[in-house]
């Protein structure tokens, strides 16, 4: 079944993957297990009684119940960041028609990092609210720059040109970040903990800051999904079907930047979540973006939460930052995908 604006079967009804119900139920079950695992596992493993007391019996005061209550905000924050990165990856792959597009691969994460470190060094910012606006600005500028460079020359924005432009931009921005930090030891100490990528600092305050960006980004993504199916046929075919490709690309790209930038500002530059989640869902359900976007949100939440749990268990009694875990898992998978797909467009 090929990509079309609205996939339909022989009865001219919207196409629905035959295994959609199974995938959805399995994904929700996995999500529930991830929530339980995130609340119960870590440097201190909580018993089922302690888990129930922490969640449902507020009057009970015990060490295990307190541990569970402190982990609730971290778990919610992990789920929301994972969902945002999953949808951002799906949007970037659809907009660029690049099967290995991801905020970290296209340099968007590093652009957000550069603006954040500039804020730390030159404007002495320290709050999450300030991080968000700087990260969004950096992500947006970098996305426009990478797409502009990748669009130059013959053939326009091909997948290989976008990946190369993103890699070169990331390398250049990384050098700038290092150059700014080296002479400023206090900035280096502040930035290095943020740069690794972690959901351990997730609080109800940061969640409340993040929610508006998440809701707006996912809403735009869902509304853009049918038109993004048409874009997969190429710009000429999409224009023939009445899609304003320029407006669509701008809206979908800005939604991806909004989701990625806000998540990066609060959790640090966590890579490969969008790449992994979108490929898993596409493998299970096919190319229809209408299903890829919402299921990528669930898959992204699962991947990031599992990575967080893994980091806590491996690094016990401390923890291994989630950005390290996702990079360790994602880098080999990226190499395999690139080798198999030969960086073909979607």
From TrEMBL:
Subcellular location: Cell membrane
Gene Ontology CC terms, in alphabetical order: plasma membrane
Keywords: Cell membrane, Membrane, Transmembrane, Transmembrane helix, Transport
Membrane topology: Multi-pass membrane protein
InterPro entries for this protein: ABC_BtuC-like (IPR037294), ABC_transptr_permease_BtuC (IPR000522)
A Gene Ontology molecular function term of the record: transmembrane transporter activity
CDD domains found in the cross-reference section: TM_ABC_iron-siderophores_like
Subcellular location, principal: membrane
TM regions (residue ranges): 20-41, 72-92, 104-125, 131-150, 162-182, 202-228, 248-271, 291-310, 322-339
Coiled coil regions, renumbered to chain: none
GO biological process terms held by the UniProt record: siderophore-iron import into cell
A Pfam family of this chain: FecCD
PANTHER family hit by this protein: FE(3+) DICITRATE TRANSPORT SYSTEM PERMEASE PROTEIN FECC-RELATED, FERRIC ENTEROBACTIN TRANSPORT SYSTEM PERMEASE PROTEIN
UniProt similarity note: Belongs to the binding-protein-dependent transport system permease family. FecCD subfamily.
Record's protein name: Iron complex transport system permease protein
Lineage, opening ranks: Bacteria, Bacillati, Bacillota, Bacilli, Bacillales
């Amino acid at each position: 079944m090929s990509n079309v604006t609205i996939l339909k079967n022989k009865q001219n009804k919207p196409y629905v993957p035959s295994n959609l119900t199974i995938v959805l139920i399995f994904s929700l079950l996995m999500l529930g297990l991830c929530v339980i695992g995130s609340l119960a596992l870590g440097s201190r493993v909580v018993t089922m009684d302690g888990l129930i007391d922490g969640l449902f019996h507020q009057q009970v005061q015990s060490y295990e119940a307190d541990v569970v209550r402190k982990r609730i905000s971290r778990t919610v924050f992990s789920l929301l960041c994972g969902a945002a990165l999953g949808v951002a990856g799906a949007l970037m792959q659809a907009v660029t028609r690049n099967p290995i597009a991801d905020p970290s691969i296209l340099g968007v994460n590093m652009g957000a990092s550069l603006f954040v470190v500039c804020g730390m060094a030159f404007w002495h910012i320290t709050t999450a609210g300030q991080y968000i606006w700087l990260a969004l600005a950096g992500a947006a500028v970098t996305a426009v720059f990478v797409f502009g460079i990748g669009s130059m020359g013959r053939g326009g924005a091909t997948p290989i040109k976008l990946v190369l432009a993103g890699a070169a931009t990331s390398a250049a921005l990384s050098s700038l970040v290092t150059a700014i930090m080296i002479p400023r030891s206090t900035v280096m100490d502040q930035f290095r903990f943020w740069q690794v990528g972690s959901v351990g600092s997730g609080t109800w305050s940061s969640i409340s800051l993040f929610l508006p960006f998440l809701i707006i980004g996912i809403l735009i993504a869902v509304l853009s999904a049918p038109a993004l199916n048409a874009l997969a046929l190429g710009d000429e075919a999409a224009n023939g079907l009445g899609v304003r490709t320029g407006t669509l690309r701008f809206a979908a790209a800005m939604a991806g930047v909004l989701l990625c930038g806000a998540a990066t500002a609060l959790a640090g530059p966590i890579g490969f979540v969008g790449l992994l989640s979108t490929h898993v869902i596409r493998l299970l359900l096919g190319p229809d973006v209408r299903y890829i976007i919402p299921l990528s949100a669930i898959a992204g939440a699962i991947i990031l939460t599992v990575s967080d749990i893994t980091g806590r268990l491996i690094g016990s009694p401390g923890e291994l930052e989630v950005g390290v875990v996702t990079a360790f898992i994602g880098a080999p998978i990226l190499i395999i995908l690139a080798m198999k797909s030969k960086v073909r467009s979607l």
